[in-house]
């Protein structure tokens, strides 16, 4: 049996009992195998050079590196969220290129690699999460790390043309090629990643579908992420009769739950709800949209702009349609506690997910898991969310088409119970297939099956000297 599991993610849970689907799945995987979880310390300004701070030690250990204010600005808000995030979400018009962003991104990855390398043995499995750490495997390889290293991208894989927006476009494929396994959310993302390698003269396809890039071979696979289905459904059932859900939410509640992000298609969602309100006859039942959208990354200009735009649309629509006893759009700017959220999903006749680009969208899965199977609500889901690849029995919409979305709201609210049940049953089966525990097990098993990296230059030098590396192309992955 191979050694410990080492997980790296930007966020790291600081509580004794972690909560949230992904965090719980990673926690469970680490409890089984033992190992390490390394992430950014939630407090900035601690030591940025001399080692990792221990946050917790039990069946596995959690260690954190510190980011200075400047690193947070340039590495996290800058390169990660003002360059990579818009590129991956097809918004190259929002990319903000600054030399200091890229330099700090590379420097932080180099430092994390140095701190991490001394904890990694050859037979460990290293699982790196998300776009904050694209160059991390390359830096670890340079330090002589031979362990199997896997990467999972939680956001969409960029389109080939968008990659040209990167300051050094050729780096992207090279960063990925230092991993043994690249995991993506959907078949569409996998196709985009393979398209990138196909277009790259440095890459060659092996007969088993793996990619040879210079002297390395990597596998590219889709691992659709999910939620902890039973736990979420139980939380929703427990909240069903909770008094604090608010009796004045009305009968025809349509819910939207998102981080306030330009990728979520919120202005068009509000416009579609406005079009739906405009088309309703006076005798039709009153429906309300409950939009829960806490602001994030507010120091990035694009995030401040979306907040202003939404407030303006919500204010205008409420001004036009509200009556003394009815507010059509309720727009809440703060996060809602998880159990209450589960209850609100169950209470809602429909859920609107209108992303213009989205890796998966877990809200769609949470909404389905939270429903009463006997009398479920209806999911209206953007074709551009990764979740739409398998949840084909939701009402699928084009988030750029306001009329189609307005019609979908009418259809959902008028849908007969039999059809709601049938659609919900099919969506729930898809949600179960991607339960987050299944997702984590599949990724770790696939990483374990990757052939090992062999050093050309002898054993790895952990002191930080650069070593040449190679990986023998022995396709073993089934
Ligand atoms: P993203 O990862 O882009 O934010 P997802 O839909 O995949 O989008 O995941 C969002 C997660 O955050 C879900 O688990 C959802 O329940 C949670 N979440 C989003 N908005 C809120 C909110 N306002 N209050 C509480 N939880 C939220």
Describe this entry's structure for a reader.
This protein has 478 residues and is an alpha/beta fold. The chain has helices at residues 21-33, 69-88, 99-117, 136-142, 160-163, 171-177, 187-198, 229-239, 266-279, 301-321, 338-347, 362-370, 402-414, 417-433, 436-448; strands spanning 5-8, 35-40, 53-57, 61-65, 125-129, 148-152, 181-184, 203-205, 211-213, 216-222, 252-257, 287-292, 329-332, 350-353, 378-382, 395-397, 453-454, 470-471. Helix 9 packs parallel to helix 10 (301-321). The longest helix has 21 residues, at 301-321. Adenosine-5'-diphosphate binds at residues 257-259, 292, 294, 335-336, 341, 360-363, 366. Belongs to the glycosyltransferase 20 family. InterPro entries: Glyco_trans_20.
The overall average pLDDT, rounded, is 90
Total strand count, please? 18
Kindly report the CATH topology of the largest domain: Rossmann fold
What is the count of DSSP helices, taking H or I runs of 4+ residues?
A: 15
Rg (C-alpha, Å): 23 Å
Strands across the major sheet, in which order? 3-4-2-1-5-6-7-10-9-8
Structural class by sheet pairing and helices: alpha/beta
Report low-confidence residues grouped into runs of 5 or more.
455-469, 472-478
């Amino acid at each position: 049996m191979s050694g410990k599991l080492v997980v790296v993610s930007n966020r790291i849970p600081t509580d004794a009992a972690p909560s949230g689907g992904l965090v719980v799945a990673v926690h469970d995987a680490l409890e089984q195998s033992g190992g390490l979880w390394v992430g950014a310390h939630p407090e900035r300004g601690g030591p940025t050079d001399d080692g990792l701070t221990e946050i917790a030690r039990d069946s596995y250990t959690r260690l954190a590196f510190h980011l200075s204010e400047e690193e947070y600005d340039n590495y996290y808000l800058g390169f990660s969220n003002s360059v990579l995030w818009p590129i991956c979400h097809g918004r190259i018009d929002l990319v903000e290129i600054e030399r200091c962003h890229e330099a700090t991104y590379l420097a932080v990855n180099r430092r994390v690699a140095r701190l991490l390398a001394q904890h990694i043995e050859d037979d460990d499995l290293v699982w790196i999460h998300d776009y904050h750490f694209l160059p991390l495997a390359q830096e670890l390889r340079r330090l002589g790390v031979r362990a199997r290293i896997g990467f999972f991208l939680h956001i969409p894989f960029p389109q080939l043309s968008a990659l040209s927006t990167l300051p050094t476009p050729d780096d992207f494929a090279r960063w990925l090629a230092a991993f043994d396994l690249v995991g993506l959310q959907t078949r569409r993302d996998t196709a985009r990643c393979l398209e990138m390698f196909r277009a790259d003269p440095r890459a060659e396809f092996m007969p088993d579908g793996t990619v040879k890039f210079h002297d390395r071979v990597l596998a590219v696979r889709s691992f659709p992420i999910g939620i902890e289905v039973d736990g979420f459904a139980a939380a929703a059932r427990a909240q069903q009769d909770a008094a604090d859900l608010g009796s004045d939410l009305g009968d025809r509640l349509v819910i939207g739950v998102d981080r306030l992000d330009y990728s979520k298609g919120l202005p068009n969602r509000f416009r579609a709800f406005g079009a739906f309100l405009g088309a309703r006859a006076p005798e039709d039942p009153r429906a309300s949209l409950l939009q829960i959208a806490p602001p994030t990354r507010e120091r990035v200009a694009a995030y401040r702009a979306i907040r202003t735009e939404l407030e303006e649309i919500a204010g205008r629509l409420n001004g036009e349609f509200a009556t003394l006893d009815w507010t059509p759009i309720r727009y809440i700017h703060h996060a809602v506690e998880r159990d209450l959220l589960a209850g609100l999903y169950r209470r809602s006749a429909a859920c609107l997910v209108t992303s213009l680009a989205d890796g998966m969208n877990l809200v769609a899965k949470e909404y389905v898991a939270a429903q009463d199977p006997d009398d479920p609500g209806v999911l209206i889901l953007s074709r551009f969310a990764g979740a739409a690849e398998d949840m084909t029995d939701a009402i699928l919409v084009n988030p750029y088409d306001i009329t189609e979305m307005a019609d979908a709201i009418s259809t959902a609210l008028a849908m007969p119970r039999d059809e709601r049940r049938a659609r919900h049953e099919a969506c729930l089966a898809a949600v179960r297939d991607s339960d987050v525990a299944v997702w984590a097990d599949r990724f770790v098993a696939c990483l374990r099956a990757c052939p090992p990296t062999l050093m050309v230059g002898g054993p790895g030098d952990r002191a930080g000297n650069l070593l040449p590396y190679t990986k023998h192309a022995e396709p073993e992955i089934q």
